[in-house]
Every structure is written in structure tokens, then in C-alpha cells.
Design brief:
The protein is an alpha/beta fold. The protein contains 15 helices and 14 strands. The protein has two domains: about 180 residues, Glycogen Phosphorylase B (Rossmann fold); about 180 residues, Glycogen Phosphorylase B (Rossmann fold, 3-Layer(aba) Sandwich), CATH 3.40.50. The chain starts with 5 loop residues before the first strand and ends in a 5-residue tail after the last helix.
Length: about 375
């Protein structure tokens, strides 16, 4: 075991027990011998899986989170006197700059293409949306040059930065599950005709369409929506549309997700063709890989880049995400052809154990940390 280097992980937006931040990165570093502290919105100071969690007050107010909470996070971070600071939210980019100005080693972890994501925030006026997207793009590309390392969650994000000189200090760490996650999803029993969606319950993720699709499914089947509604008015719309074969579970802990995947046959990723979704399966869409880990057949959007991934293997089928009847037909096709469905599930799990697993990705994380701190893995 090497002399412990102290790592301080920062997030003002994500859950402290987030799959990428905690279960993959923080726990990997802790298991490798690093002294890991995570500052995030949480109820209490705690130690979980060898990671010390320092709580931030919980708030849903964006302005307060980006100002008062970020300032508190910065002060707490400084007290840690860490060897490396690793932050995960674009709203903390100036916290990262301030830490860098104090001669700290800083890593910026980019979870999504934020300028493109902004273009789908329909509650923001269109003109303002475009202005903010350009602004965030410029701020990122200027500020990134100051950081010691840029980690991105997908190849599409890496490509958007490919013309910047910062790409020389950038690596891709995909949101793939641990083999243990896949093992926890395993079952030898007969599965019911359960269909599942796991993730944020947003309009642009096709939640209305997959809910409506259940009206047209011929087979006896049940849809489980596992996640949180971001907007109350949208939740009301979905609940009014939902039939008795739709169950809204709400938010669950990451560790509980295998319990749902273990009893499902089909996983849904019917996202709208929004700018931020076009390349979202190229590593950063953890839903795809979690479904694959569970041995589920996938029904996904018929975007060109998605079709290539889902239909190779194959691990599923693709449909028009805005057509509930097409989604229902795909569900019935898979349920009517159990051997096809099972083979897709077997193909998916095989790919997880052989290629798309965190054990492979984690080697890159440990290697760049070793280089950053001038020691070998």
C-alpha cells in the first residue's frame, strides 16, 4: 500500500451515492489506498465504502446552489488540504479555477455536453438558451486549459473538445457498470413480463410516449418507471395518462437498481432526438449498460448512432421515440419472440463481462491519478 494521497471529490448537484461519482470513481480510489473525501448534498457526515462524506445543505434553488452553496463547498474543500481536487459539475467550474489559483491539482469531470443540453431546456426562452449555450461553451473551453486533467463521460463529448489543445490532457471514462453490478442482476428464475425505465423522468426522455405505449401493448405486461420527476406539472400529466399496467416507483438508491433489473425483460431508452442525445450512447448513457448488465433486451431511439450500438450484437431494437404505437409494437415483438429476447439478453451480458465493465475503465482512472501525483499505479 502506497503512502496515502488525499483526494477531495466535489459535487453540488449530484447525489453523494451517484453511480459514476461514488460507486465507480470514489470507491475505486479508496480501494486503491487513496484517502478519499466527498463533499456533496447529504444529511450528515458519514463514512461509506471507505469514503468520507462531508455534507452540504440540501437545496433545489439553482441560484442559491450556484452561489451560497458553491462558496461553502469551496471553503470546505480548502480545509481538506487535499493533493487532488476532482469536481463533477459545470456550475463548479469557477470553484475549480479558484482552487487552481491556489496551486492545487484540479480535475474537471464532464458528464455531458452542457451547451447541447441547454438547448433542450424548454423553460428557458429560445434566444436566451442560445446565448447561454455559447457562453458555457466559451467558458468551458477557456477554463479547461487551467486544469490538470479533463475527464469526459463519452466519445461525443471528447469529440466536441477535439480541436482544443486541452484534448492532450483529456481521457474518456465511460459510465459502464462493475461486474459485481451485473452479477447482482443475475437470476435463473422465470422473469415476468416487466418493462423498465430507470433515470430522470423528463419529457425529452420519452416518458409520455412510453407511458402511453402501454395502452397498446397486447401482451400482459407491466411498466416500471424508476426515477424522479424534475417538474411537478409533468408528473401530473404522466400520472393522468398512466394506466393500471404502469407503476411509478420514484427514486431508489443505486444499490437497489439490480433488484428491479433482475425481474425485468425489457429496458427502454426512448429519448427524443435532442442535440445532447444524439451521441449519448457512446459511453455516457449508463442506462444502456445497466440494462445490458441485467440481461435485458433494449428498445431504444432510432437515432443513427444509437441503431449502430443497439442493433449490433444485437442487444435490442430501435423505434421512433415519439410514436407510442411503434414502441408498443416493439414490446409485443420481443414478448412474442422469447428466444430472440433471451438471446439479446445473453449478448448484452456477454458484452458487459468481456468489454463494457468498470474494471477495465478503472485502470485508466488509476493510471492518470498515478501520473498526476508522480507515482506509478
Amino acid at each position: 500500500m502506497r503512502t496515502k494521497h488525499k483526494v477531495c471529490i466535489l459535487t453540488s448537484l449530484h447525489s453523494p451515492l451517484d453511480g459514476r461519482i461514488f460507486h465507480r470513481q470514489a470507491k475505486t480510489l479508496a480501494q486503491e489506498g487513496y484517502d478519499v473525501t466527498l463533499i456533496a448534498q447529504y444529511d450528515k457526515e458519514d463514512i461509506v465504502g471507505g469514503v468520507r462524506i462531508i455534507p452540504l445543505p440540501k437545496t433545489k434553488n439553482r441560484f442559491k446552489r450556484m452561489t451560497k452553496t458553491s462558496w461553502l463547498l469551496f471553503r470546505l474543500a480548502l480545509k481538506q488540504k487535499a493533493d487532488v481536487y476532482h469536481f463533477h459539475d459545470v456550475e463548479l467550474i469557477f470553484v475549480g479555477i479558484f482552487l487552481k489559483l491556489m496551486n492545487k491539482k484540479v480535475i474537471y469531470d464532464v458528464h455531458e455536453d452542457y451547451p447541447k443540453a441547454l438547448m433542450s431546456k424548454f423553460w428557458i426562452p429560445t434566444v436566451l438558451r442560445k446565448f447561454m449555450a455559447v457562453g458555457i461553451d466559451c467558458i468551458q473551453k477557456v477554463c479547461m486549459n487551467f486544469f490538470d486533467l479533463i475527464i469526459v463521460a463519452g466519445d461525443d463529448i471528447a469529440e466536441s473538445f477535439s480541436k482544443c489543445r486541452l484534448c492532450k490532457k483529456m481521457i474518456v471514462l465511460r459510465n459502464v457498470p462493475l461486474k459485481g453490478f451485473a452479477a447482482a442482476c443475475s437470476t435463473d428464475g422465470q422473469k415476468p413480463n416487466n418493462i423498465i425505465y430507470v433515470g430522470a423522468l423528463l419529457r425529452i426522455r420519452g416518458i409520455m410516449e412510453i407511458t402511453e405505449a402501454m395502452k397498446y401493448v397486447r401482451n400482459v405486461a407491466r411498466l416500471y418507471l424508476v426515477g424522479t420527476f424534475v417538474r411537478t406539472e409533468f408528473e401530473r400529466e404522466v400520472r393522468q395518462l398512466a394506466t393500471e399496467n404502469v407503476e411509478i416507483i420514484g427514486q431508489v438508491n443505486y444499490a437497489e437498481i439490480p433488484n428491479f433489473l433482475r425481474t425485468a425483460k425489457i429496458g427502454l431508452i426512448c429519448f427524443y432526438p435532442e442535440p445532447n442525445h444524439i451521441g449519448a450512447l457512446s459511453g455516457r448513457n449508463n442506462k444502456l449498460y445497466e440494462y445490458m448488465a441485467g440481461g435485458l433486451a433494449i428498445i431504444g431511439s432510432d437515432l443513427p448512432s444509437w441503431k449502430e450500438i443497439i442493433e449490433s450484437g444485437p442487444v435490442g431494437v430501435t423505434v421512433n421515440p415519439k410514436n407510442p404505437k411503434a414502441i408498443a409494437s416493439a414490446i409485443d415483438y420481443l414478448l412474442d419472440n422469447p428466444e430472440v429476447l433471451k438471446q439479446m439478453g445473453r449478448n448484452a451480458r456477454k458484452a458487459i463481462f468481456e468489454k463494457y465493465n468498470w474494471e477495465s475503465e478503472s485502470e485508466k482512472l488509476l493510471e492518470v491519478y498515478g501520473k498526476l501525483l508522480n507515482h506509478e499505479k
